[in-house]
Design a protein that fits this description.
The complex is a heterodimer.
Chain A lengths: L17 H6 L4 H9 L2 H11 L11 H6 L9 E7 L8 H8 L1 H15 L1 E8 L4 H16 L4 E4 L4 E9 L9 H8 L23 E5 H13 L1 H6 L1 E2 L2 E2 L1 E8 L5 E6 L4 H6 L13 E5 L8 E2 H5 L11 H4 L3 H4 L7 E6 L4 H15 L5 H18 L5 H14 L7 H25 L1 H6 L18
Parallel strand pairs in A: 1-2, 1-5, 2-4, 8-12
Antiparallel strand pairs in A: 3-4, 6-7, 8-9, 10-11, 10-12
Chain B lengths: L5 H11 L11 H11 L6 H11 L3 H10 L11 E6 L2 H5 L2 H12 L12 E6 L11 E3 L2 E3 L4 H18 L1
Parallel strand pairs in B: 1-2
Antiparallel strand pairs in B: 1-3, 3-4
Helix pairs in contact in B: 2-3, 3-4
The chains are: A alpha/beta, B alpha+beta.
Bound molecules: flavin mononucleotide, iron/sulfur cluster and FE2/S2 (inorganic) cluster.
């Protein structure tokens, strides 16, 4: 069993309530940080821990905190990103639903480190019932002296507010989130200026993911150095993975990043294998935006090494033969699934979610959806596959925010690795309406170059 | 014209008080949620103008936002709105069949409302419940691991509630 730092207590009966959470050792990190550490020392521990942002980009959290501008007389803000809308991702929901005080605790420590006296949790509008759970936890924390004025007699003041979005994936992008928090459409801002300098209401702001902020609690409790010893290389600590698709045990798992992808899929401790004894065809291991890999490249890297569940190993081989850890949304496709159809649903998603500011993204996502629909429904031409490739290349890197890339990558990876399945759809449109291309050669062992 | 009750107005002021002076526009998204709940499940032009006056902003600033976010209904909807997720992970677990089944059972297409005004069917994109697929949102809560039997039961439940609530 791997070490659990976030979810260890998530299923203690009553852990949602303050009494039980406190009895189980909750809020110790607040006592330690506020009473025995300066804000900069807290940031230093987070730096030492090697914690990388859990929202998708994997940017080192401590470094982000140290970039926060601190002009005199200007408020600073911490904003917790609970927008969680990347298909395949449902880990933040789990954490907030089962152990809400862990997030509140992490927010208090992080707010202290950053000097935020008003911290906002921006949560996707659909998670309406979780707002109640969080507000309850915040009220309990406040009643017990962990929030409000002069916390623990240290002179530090803090209020935490929960604000709902209203249905827009783009509001997970941090500058769109800030626009939305200001009561506007979620149009991403042009950077620079970065939020660290000019964020919420033009004040310096740090935006971090729910899981990132929750991880601050064990980091302060055990120390940054101890935290950094868990995991491997630059993948320190534990990571929440939300597993879904064709697996026996979908759900949220906390892993230390030393297990292999194969173990994660097949062991009973995690996904428990694929239902009905079917074979693995493909997987998108880090949320819909990261490249899909066929079974053979998923379980082993192109070099023939076991692929592991960590940042470095998942991205081994770059986009040519690797993928990304992303947000940890792990989507498994069994042998009876159609990659074209799955890619079509993702293309539709990105078309729906594009904010429309940049033409390559606004137009390109629409075209990709249309062409994929034609291919899926037997009206595609062989040249359409090249056209798709061309469109995604013209989106990538030519937009204000990374949603453009996020829309381009899934299409690119599907064509890169499953081109013959696309070709089969256009060559045999009638067959493709009635049956599936199946597993084909996607699980065949890879030819490994002989060691020299 | 419909207006918020004193209790709801308090809630609005409580939200505005979270922000720095002059930044009351930040309350727009939460207040539109309140308005939609209070005024029949959708946002009419009249409702949006009312919200603009409450927050002391221009009506266009409200329209801009109301049209951007998918949770706001700009047309009347049924008493119960089935919002079924159709994105990749749900599709892998049979959401297409669930959507077809609901269409047949209610005799409506996606985006339509039944003649008795009880049910609206919408398809939505990933709601963060991919491990519990197929799923839909119904009001404030999620209904997960959907099957045809569960759909039957949910429809019956709504019909029963509609009778007892009237
Ligand atoms: C289109 C798009 C959607 C995003 N959605 C989310 C999200 O739902 N949750 C999240 O934490 N980060 C999301 N991000 C990443 C954020 O912009 C930001 O990098 C993150 O919140 C920073 O937190 P972290 O460093 O703790 O990961 C998204 C980015 C993009 C471009
Ligand atoms: S890339 Fe797409 S989502 Fe991002 S700003 Fe441009 S149009 Fe909007
Ligand atoms: S794909 Fe349906 S909830 Fe995520």
């Amino acid at each position: 069993m791997g070490r659990k730092l976030l979810l260890e207590k998530a299923h203690v009966p009553g852990i949602r309530t303050y009494e039980v959470y406190r009895r189980e050792g909750g809020y110790r990190s607040v006592e330690k940080a506020l009473k025995t550490m300066t804000p900069d020392q807290v940031t230093e521990e987070v730096k030492k821990s090697g914690l990388r942002g859990r929202g998708g980009a994997g940017f080192p959290a401590g470094m982000k905190w140290s970039f926060l501008a601190k002009p005199e007389g200007v408020p600073r803000y911490l904003v917790c990103n609970a927008d969680e809308s990347e298909p395949g991702t449902f880990k933040d929901r789990y954490l907030m639903e089962f152990i809400p005080h862990l997030l509140v605790e992490g927010l208090i420590v992080a707010s202290y480190a950053l000097g935020s006296n008003k911290t906002f949790i921006y949560i996707r509008g659909e998670y309406a019932w979780i707002v109640d759970i969080l507000e309850q936890a915040i009220a309990e924390a406040k009643n017990n002296g962990w929030l409000g004025k002069n916390i623990l007699g240290t002179g530090f003041d803090l209020e935490i507010y929960v604000q709902r979005g209203a249905g827009a994936y783009i509001c997970g992008e941090e500058t769109a989130l800030l626009e939305s928090l200001e009561g506007k459409r979620g149009n991403p801002r042009i950077k620079p200026p970065f939020p660290a300098v000019k964020g919420l209401w033009d004040s310096p702001t740090v935006v971090n993911n729910v899981e990132t902020l929750a991880a601050v609690v064990p980091i302060i409790n055990i120390g940054g150095d101890e935290y950094a010893k868990i995991g491997v290389g630059k993948s320190t600590g534990t990571k929440l993975i939300s597993a879904c698709g064709n697996i026996n045990k979908p759900g949220v798992y906390e892993i230390d990043m030393t297990i292999s992808v194969e173990e994660f899929i097949y062991s009973d401790e995690y996904c428990g294998g694929i239902p009905d004894g079917k074979r693995l065809k493909a997987c998108i291991p880090g949320g819909s935006s990261v490249p899909i890999l066929p079974a053979n490249l998923l379980l082993k890297t192109a070099k023939g090494e076991k692929r592991m569940m960590n940042y470095e190993s998942l991205s081994d081989g770059g986009f040519a033969t690797g993928t990304m850890m992303g947000s940890g949304g792990f989507i498994v496709l069994d042998e009876d699934q159609c990659v074209v159809r799955h890619t079509l649903t993702l293309a539709r998603f990105y078309r729906h979610e594009s904010c429309g500011q940049c033409s390559p993204c606004r137009e390109g996502t629409g075209w990709m959806e249309k062409i994929l629909k034609n291919i899926e429904y037997g009206k595609g031409k062989k040249s359409d596959i090249d056209l798709l490739w061309d469109i995604q290349r013209k989106i990538e890197g030519n937009t204000i925010c990374p949603l453009g890339d996020a829309a381009a990558w899934p299409v690119a990876a599907a064509i890169r690795h499953f081109r013959d399945e696309f070709e089969w759809h256009v060559l045999y449109p009638n067959a493709a309406q009635n049956r599936n291309y199946g597993l084909a050669h996607y699980a065949d062992p890879l030819p490994v170059a002989a060691k020299t | 014209m419909a207006q918020f009750s004193a209790e709801k107005l308090n809630k609005v002021n409580e939200i505005i008080a979270r922000y720095p002076a002059g930044k009351q526009k930040s309350a727009l998204i939460p207040v539109l949620h309140l308005a939609q709940e209070e005024f029949g499940g959708w946002l009419s032009a009249e409702t949006m103008d009312y919200v603009a006056s409450l927050l002391k902003i221009e009506p266009i600033e409200v329209y801009e936002v109301a049209t951007f976010y998918s949770m706001y209904n700009l047309k009347p909807v049924g008493k119960y709105v089935f919002e079924v997720c159709q994105t990749g992970p749900c599709m892998l677990n049979g959401s297409d069949d669930i959507i077809e089944y609901i269409k047949d059972k209610l005799g409506i297409k996606v985006g339509e409302t039944t003649a008795d005004g009880l049910f609206t069917l919408k398809t939505v994109e990933c709601l963060g419940a991919c491990g519990y697929a197929p799923m839909m949102q119904l009001g404030k809560h999620y209904r997960e691991h959907l099957t045809k039997e569960k759909i039957d039961a949910i429809i019956e439940e709504c019909e029963r509630n509609a009778v007892t609530n009237n």
